[in-house]
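Handout, page 2. Input:
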Amino acid sequence: MTITVCPTPEAFDRTAAWRIIAQMLSKPSSVIGLSTGQTTMGMHRIVSDIFSGHPFDVSRITLFNVDELTNLPRSYAGSCYTMIRTQLADALGIPDERFLMPPTESDDFALEARLWEERLAAAGGADLQMLGIGLNGHIGINQPGTPFESETWVSPMDPGFEARVRRETQVPPGTELGGLTRGIRNIMHTRRIILIAKGAHKADIVARAIRGPVTTDIPASVVQLHPDCEILLDAAAASMI
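Output:
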């Protein structure tokens, strides 16, 4: 495990963007996992801007996101499919057949989870995962307490996040919301993981995840056991390590 600390949020965004681009250039058939949220918007924009100004071959690149919301329309602006397609995939010209995402609506999410993993395996397996960390230490939507041997599944949302989604979508109270997420075992099978965080609000959980014990109470702590993992932070997120 290596730790890289960038002096500013802007430097973090540039560094993270170049990690993605470097993977694409070094292996033009790469399968790259992304994450959504405030941490990743800047890096996605920079990748798109660099590609626009200096195009390179992405004809064999495959993208996916580590998770997806369930029981909401894919057109919802907060769906992972829509965010990644808007922020990055469209700018790179990645077609749907190489943007491997599960559906947001299904009568059988267990089947969709298996099919998603089969598609990723058929593409060659994940080469790189840009992996965000939640304030409670979740990775993907694997909340605290999720077993490390978990396989891709539908996890409950964090209650605060679920409340926000319900306000934005006005889904009926009886509709069960969740997140189809790669399991911790699946994430750990990625060839290279870059755990990313920026901002002082992430400092405490980052320190606990990478300096504390490996525990299911903090799912992100499992990356300490990965053979090729980089912790990429801005100075604020690194302030407690």
